[in-house]
Specification:
This protein is 49% helix and 11% strand. The protein is of the alpha/beta class.
Length: 269
């Protein structure tokens, strides 16, 4: 009887272990599935990059040149895009712009934090030019030296899904204009911070699994890629249209030439 109980307990315990991973997988899948359902699928049609840029509703509100986060000019040729979340539940994008402009956020190599864009559900605020280095990722590491920093707002009343979607479209637009590959879209987590007990920050936290990039992050990067492909497809469509127009002109030129030869021959006859 004792042996029988041990067998039963072992079977039950094994069943629990088998179920737990399935529960975790389902919760991850459910999160991105809910967001995808709310946002809808990305259209599979070309999109004009200029129109896409306009639709982002970017408001340029730069930190004054030579002050705070821009007190030292440090040129940058962007190779990456780094995604953050503010974890500030009271400040919107405009509040973050004011804080950066008055030097209220301290830290980084030069003593003041700064990044390139802050996104909320209905707008994007730009704080520094994309050809200048920010202080948002990893002190003097490649995350700061080579990446455009984007912060996603989390204030009360802000739509998280619409903020993510506007961020995805902004990242796609930046990829297009700066020729940045999809593999170079990075979470803040990716850039370790020297000297911290937890070097890799759980950021953007609502796109992480157990503090690390997982299925939800991959879903978000996939959505960025879909928006980017629409911009690329527009260029390809324009090039194809030009090719077809040039081919039509060439064919017309041949017809005109043949017709000219025939009419000349008929007049001689």
């Amino acid at each position: 009887m004792k042996a029988f109980r041990i067998v039963i307990l072992t079977a039950v315990f094994s069943s629990i272990l088998l179920v737990l991973p399935g529960c975790n997988t389902n919760s991850v899948s459910q999160r991105s599935t809910i967001w995808e359902r709310e946002l809808g699928a990305v259209l599979n049609t070309p999109e004009d990059p200029n129109r896409a840029h306009k639709d982002l509703n970017i408001k340029v509100d730069l930190i004054a040149k030579g002050s705070y986060g821009r007190r030292i000019f440090r040129e940058m040729s962007p190779r990456y895009i780094t995604i953050h979340s503010t974890q500030n539940y009271t400040g919107d994008a405009y509040a973050h712009a004011k804080a950066l402009k008055r030097g209220a956020l301290r830290g980084g190599v030069i003593g003041y934090l700064c990044w390139h864009f802050t996104v909320q559900d209905d707008a994007v605020i730009q704080h520094i030019p994309t050809d200048e280095r920010g202080e948002h990722a990893d002190f003097d590491g490649p995350g700061n030296r080579y990446s455009i920093g984007i912060e996603m707002c989390e204030h009360n009343g802000n739509s998280q899904t619409q903020t993510m979607e506007r961020t995805a479209k902004l990242a796609a637009n930046l990829m297009y204009h700066h020729k940045i590959p999809i593999d170079n879209i990075r979470a803040h987590y990716h850039w370790p911070r020297a000297g911290y007990s937890t070097p890799n920050k759980n950021c953007p936290h609502f796109l992480m699994e157990s503090g690390k990039p997982g299925d939800t992050w991959r879903w978000f990067v996939g959505r960025i890629n879909q928006h980017h492909q629409r911009l690329i497809a527009y260029d390809e469509a324009i090039q194809e249209q030009k090719r077809l127009e040039e081919e039509a002109r060439r064919q017309n030129s041949i017809v005109q030439h043949v017709w000219h030869r025939i009419t000349n021959w008929l007049r001689i006859g």
